């Protein structure tokens, strides 16, 4: 053999030895793990694990074995990604099959390294329903845990804020309950990921993870309405909560309308409107003529032929006014004469447009004839009234108001009479949107970390749904968003899905 041949054989042997001794690096070169970098069996498991990513459904099926995740060393299957800084990890989780051991485990894990004795913090759901925040502070140290009062949740979230880790869990449809660990000693760069442990070295277990999101939240120096995070345009089946990201960009897009033909979403970005073709998953600009400073208050007429917009005009000191134009594009026609006016809805017969108007240091709801005329004031509360929308049958206008303390959903007759509160809770509910079949309302809910009359960007929020006449309210989505998420009607024409925007810093 020549020297070059010997060198090649020797180099190949070294590479093969490295890959066999370090399976993590061998596996991490595979690009079939969705938003994760790779996967690995941690510890000396007897049955190798696997990860299958379904790109169409955006779900992860993870199979793994392992003796336990406890004491000073761990054995389990892990799909992971390296990350720095703060984050919010959320997923809907479900074991597949009855299982063998009561303490088989799934959830999110933040890990200092891929060594079996590494420090870590885990949001764990056990096969018997036990739910706990478990953590190892030092390499090889014993595990500690904080047990949750909830049993067998299927929504699990793990958030890092500096040295604090917060576990939040819920049964789908309910709001979160939380537990936290402070003063973690893990470094800034960590592994984050989903895991499964069978709690029996002779057994392999499976679980499916859906609605998996890794969010990098806004930093402390972000200036609202000046600095923006990236955006995910999503659709969701409201009956199951199954979500799908159909488009993502590293800048702000907001407030998708779903056209009545079911083919297009219309959203705003950087002052312009865009048609997003659901078949090609590509956007094109919607011609709005001189109106190039549009906000996220844009709504289609019920027949889908016209679109109302809110454009900030220089002649109104850059305040918002209400206009409309053909959904095909063209020159907008101005309707309101006073500013600021923020458009929110059409009457089903297209004779009136309704909007929030700032008048005399109050924000109330007004309507105005589409063909022009004097505006008609419908509400007169000292608190903020906003987010007005007609029902498809034209019998009611729903809106949100903070007149009783927290922001709540209200409704009234189209002439402003019979104003009545619809939701009664301790959260802040905004922007009620009625399904085309007239049966359901979807709205966005802010927690109590915001003022009732504020709906800021970049908060942990819920999307909730309730019967149109009132009744049980359930959470259908757990996400990071807020302003621009669902400001406008965004139901699919068959009343089965909604579209919305969630946010993350794309690092």
Write down the overall mean pLDDT: 94
* Distance linking N and C termini: 49 Å
Q: Largest sheet, order of strands side by side?
A: 1-6-15-8-9-10-11
CATH superfamily of the largest domain: TolB, C-terminal domain
Tell me which CATH architecture of the largest domain applies here.
Answer: 6 Propeller
What integer value in Å does the Rg equal? Answer: 26 Å
Number of strands: 39
Q: Which parts are unreliable, with pLDDT below 50 for 5 consecutive residues or more? A: 1-30
What is the molecular shape?
Answer: elongated
Based on the model shown, name its key terms.
507 residues, mainly beta, Jelly Rolls, Neuraminidase, seven-stranded antiparallel β-sheet, 2 helices, elongated, disordered N terminus
3D structure, described in words:
- With 507 residues, the protein is mainly β.
- It folds into three domains: 1-30; 34-215, Jelly Rolls, CATH 2.60.120.200; 230-504, TolB, C-terminal domain (Neuraminidase, 6 Propeller).
- 5% of the residues lie in helices and 47% in strands.
- The strands form nine sheets. The protein has a seven-stranded antiparallel beta sheet. Strands 2-3-16-7-12-13-14 form a seven-stranded antiparallel beta sheet, with no helix packed on it. It has a four-stranded antiparallel beta sheet with strand order 19-20-21-22, with no helix packed on it.
- A hairpin with a 6-residue loop joins β25 and β26 (333-334).
- The longest helix has 19 residues, at 3-21.
- The radius of gyration is 26 Å and the shape is elongated.
- The two termini are 49 Å apart.
- Residues 1-30 have low confidence and may be disordered.
């Amino acid at each position: 053999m020549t020297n070059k041949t010997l060198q090649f054989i020797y180099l190949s042997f070294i590479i093969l030895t490295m890959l066999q001794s370090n399976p993590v690096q061998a596996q991490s070169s595979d690009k079939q793990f969705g938003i994760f970098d790779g996967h690995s069996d941690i510890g000396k498991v007897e049955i190798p694990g696997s990860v299958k990513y379904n790109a169409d459904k955006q779900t992860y099926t993870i199979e793994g074995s392992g003796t336990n995740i406890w004491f000073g060393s761990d054995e389990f299957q892990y799909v992971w990604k390296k990350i720095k800084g703060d984050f919010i990890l959320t997923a809907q989780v479900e074991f597949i099959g009855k299982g063998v051991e009561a303490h088989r485990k799934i959830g999110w894990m933040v890990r200092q390294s891929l060594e079996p004795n590494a420090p870590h913090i885990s949001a764990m759901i056990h096969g018997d329903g036990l739910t706990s925040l478990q953590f190892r502070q030092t390499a090889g140290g014993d595990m500690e845990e904080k047990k949750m009062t909830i049993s067998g949740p299927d929504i699990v979230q793990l958030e890092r804020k500096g040295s604090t880790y917060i576990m939040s869990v819920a049964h789908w449809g309910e709001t979160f309950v939380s537990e936290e660990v402070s003063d973690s000693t893990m470094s800034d760069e960590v592994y984050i990921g989903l895991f499964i442990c069978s709690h029996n070295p002779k057994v392999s277990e499976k679980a499916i993870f859906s609605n998996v999101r890794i969010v990098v939240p806004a930093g402390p120096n972000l200036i609202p309405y000046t600095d923006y995070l990236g955006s995910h345009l999503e659709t969701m089946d409201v009956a199951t909560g199954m979500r799908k990201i159909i488009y993502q960009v590293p800048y702000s897009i907001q407030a998708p309308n779903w056209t009545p033909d079911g083919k297009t979403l219309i959203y705003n970005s950087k002052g312009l409107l865009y048609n997003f073709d659901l078949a090609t998953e590509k956007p094109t600009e919607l011609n709005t003529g001189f109106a190039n400073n549009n906000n996220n208050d844009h709504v289609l007429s019920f027949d889908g032929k016209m679109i109302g917009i809110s454009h900030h005009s220089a002649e109104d000191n850059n305040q918002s006014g209400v206009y409309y134009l053909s959904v095909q594009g063209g020159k907008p026609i101005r309707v309101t004469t006073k500013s600021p006016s923020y458009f929110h809805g059409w009457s089903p017969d297209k004779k009136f447009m309704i909007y929030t108007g700032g008048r005399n240091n109050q924000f109330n709801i007004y309507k105005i004839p589409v063909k022009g005329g004097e505006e008609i004031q419908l509400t007169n509360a000292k608190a903020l009234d906003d987010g007005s929308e007609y029902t498809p049958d034209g019998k009611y206008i729903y809106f949100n108001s903070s007149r009783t303390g927290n922001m709540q959903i209200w409704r009234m007759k189209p002439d402003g009479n019979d104003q009545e509160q619809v939701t009664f809770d301790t959260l802040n509910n905004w922007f009620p949107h009625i399904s085309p079949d007239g049966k359901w309302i979807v709205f966005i809910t802010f927690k109590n970390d915001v003022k009732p009359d504020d709906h800021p960007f970049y908060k942990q929020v819920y999307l909730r749904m309730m019967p149109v006449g009132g009744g049980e309210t359930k959470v259908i989505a757990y996400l990071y968003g807020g302003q621009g998420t669902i400001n406008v009607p965004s139901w699919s024409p068959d009343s089965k899905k909604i579209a919305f925007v969630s946010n993350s810093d794309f690092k």
